[in-house]
Amino acid sequence: MEVTMERTRRSAIISILVTTAGYVLLSPAPNVYAQKTHTESDLYAFFEQILEKKHEEKFDEALQLAERLRQSYPEDPAGTFGLLVTYQTIMRNYRVRVYEDRFNDLLNLCVKQAKKAIKKNKRDGKNYFYLGCAFGSRSIYYAERGKWMKAFKDGARVKSNFQKSLTFSPDFYDAYYGLGLFNYWLAAKSKLLRMLPFSKNGRQKGLHQIQMAVEKGRFLKTDGMFGLATVYFNEGQYDKALEISQQLYRRYPQNPSLLYKLGCIHEKLGQWQDASQCFEKLHTLLTETKYKSVSYQVDCLYQMAKCAYQLGHYLETQRLCQQALALEKTCDFSKEIDGPFEKYAEIKKGLRRLNKEVESIMLTQASNHKG
Fold this sequence. Notes:
The chain is mainly α. It has a domain at about 255-370: Tetratricopeptide repeat domain (Serine Threonine Protein Phosphatase 5, Tetratricopeptide repeat, Alpha Horseshoe). About 75% of the residues lie in helices and about 0% in strands. The chain has 17 helices and no strands. The protein has helices spanning about 5-15, 40-55, 60-70, 80-95, 100-120, 125-145, 150-170, 175-190, 190-195, 200-215, 220-235, 240-250, 255-270, 270-290, 295-310, 315-330, 345-370. α3 runs antiparallel to α4 (about 80-95) and α16 packs across α17. The chain starts with a helix and ends with a helix.
């Protein structure tokens, strides 16, 4: 997919600052929230349950668990962070703004709690990890809304806090995930750095750090898989990106963002039938969810139309284009957000071009048939 320079900058920022995933996509843990005696180990296991529920698309359960975690550990940022990343995941996965106010309140509270935890213990790497994650969430929020200066400011704080986390807790390997993303995307997306000889080294260093988090981290093994899939996609190593994404899909088949990414990988590989199936499944999810995004449905229909076109199904291409164009007229984009690859404005342009092209083909075929 072609993207504008602004879109490239936006994708780079989001990729660099996606350390909010630092506490995201974890493996199931034992049920510990009913225990009366709370330890740090209990807190982590409790938090893992929240995040697993979130990525299983069981958002109500995740929010309930996060509230109970806040009650059990009122001084720890974990409960607050569990709430805000759940709301953020809903908005990002379905491209809606429905929880923006709640998200902002929780985000500011999480930063405050993390700073307080650091003040109590400045030599605990975990506390800096908390703060890095909070700044990462806020960075993504700013970047997705075009607030570049604020996004870069928090981005610098993300890197600084993850480095401090490793300084005080060298075996806290999860922090390497945030650093890996930062180093990779800074080298991969910066126009200036790409022209310098050490650009490739920066990308390789970032890739290695992400792999380290996957292999040795406690919290970020699954997150790292998502990060690696995205890195491989950007490097043009689509087979590797596909392999990892398929593993994740077997665990999270209801994740709309994962389905969208899978469809895009199949497109890059020229596997148009497989891509079409991914987008068809995604379209079903988007029409059945309570978190409705018209622009996301339009994007999905557009991708389905591109697949049909590449498969030579011109009548189906025309039908999908017309369906998307009719739906696009009902979109109130002030309530929605862009996806990870193309701006909605670019999607609409592409949709209209494809519709005109297929109309021309249909007219030519009709004319030849008459002749």
